[in-house]
Amino acid sequence: MARTTTVEDVTVIATESLTKRYPRVTALDRLTVEIAPGVTGLVGANGAGKSTLIKILLGLSPATEGTASVLGLDSRTDGPAIRAHVGYMPEHDCLPPDVSATEFVVHMARMSGLPPTAARERTADTLRHVGLYEERYRPIGGYSMGMKQRVKLAQALVHDPQLVLLDEPTNGLDPAGRDEMLGLIRRVHTDFGISVLVTSHLLGELERTSDQVVVIDGGRLLRSSSTQEFTQATGSLAVEVTDTDRHPDGTRATLDALAAAGLTARADGHLLLVDIRDESTYDTVRDTVAELGVGLIRMEQRRHRIAELFTDETDQPDEEGGDRDAA
Ligand SMILES: Nc1ncnc2c1ncn2[C@@H]1O[C@H](COP(=O)(O)OP(=O)(O)OP(=O)(O)O)[C@@H](O)[C@H]1O
């Protein structure tokens, strides 16, 4: 089932100066971005313009200015062809409570043009894939939020699209449910080769799930790059040490000793952030800690986090994560 990537689909979505103005608000403001195959996270606070972008990409809402192409098709003129090759999971609950997941997803498959037998087979496969097989004949009205989100995902996948646009698929889920949904989303790409654009206002989850992250704010592009670039190594070494009877504040004692050894370091809570000058920095830290007699709990190179985009670049968040999910 997995597809091979060809030169033509190196860019699955491209926008150029895309602008959408409503009477009172500019929802998208000259947005120019290219999205490669794989899993892409589109992150932004509520009202940033994520849903507006998705509706324009699907050809459901016209842009005021600029252009957007999806799988090489023009969203202004090729809406029906785009929707034939793209699956869409809307943000809000749009499910009929009185029908079963099977009935609903078969209906959506038929709407996309699949013949009856193929629609039933694809529905069974897709519901199994999203983990809803046992409950598939029960009315959706009795489903949990997590199960409803899976039905919405299944209907987006049932016609075997090349790309799916998932609008806030983790909304309303508890942390375990979110993790499961993110795992499913990742597998949509790894198992079936389907590219995914997934929106969220939660930064941490996109860091884990996406190959590329696009950040928008007030309809403008804040940043677009690979997740690897976002989380690349920084030039500082995070060091954590124990306290001892001789050094009841081990962190402070180590900070002073590192300064005496000629290194630049600062305390960040219980962590010490040491500037890496060259390879010898590691040895100097190790030797300084050993001479002091405090225990070395960890010594590792710091990595950037996507959350830092929303703070001062130099204002490193707490190592334990803090509120990494807040946009
Ligand atoms: N049909 C509309 N008419 C007028 N204004 C709209 C319309 N749709 C969206 N907006 C406005 O455009 C801006 C962007 O909204 P959009 O729904 O795209 O944001 P979002 O990032 O998806 O956030 P959310 O997750 O809250 O939906 C908001 O200020 C919103 O109020």
TrEMBL record:
GO molecular function annotations of the record: ATP binding
Gene3D superfamilies cross-referenced by the UniProt entry: P-loop containing nucleotide triphosphate hydrolases
Similarity field: Belongs to the ABC transporter superfamily.
InterPro entries: AAA+_ATPase, ABC_transporter-like_ATP-bd, P-loop_NTPase
Protein name: ABC transporter ATP-binding protein
This protein's record includes keyword ATP-binding: yes
Lineage: Bacteria, Bacillati, Actinomycetota, Actinomycetes, Kitasatosporales
Record keywords: ATP-binding, Nucleotide-binding, Transport
SMART domains, alphabetized: AAA
SUPFAM superfamilies in the cross-refs: P-loop containing nucleoside triphosphate hydrolases
Organism: Streptomyces humicola
ABC transporter domain: residues covered: 13-243
One Pfam match: ABC_tran
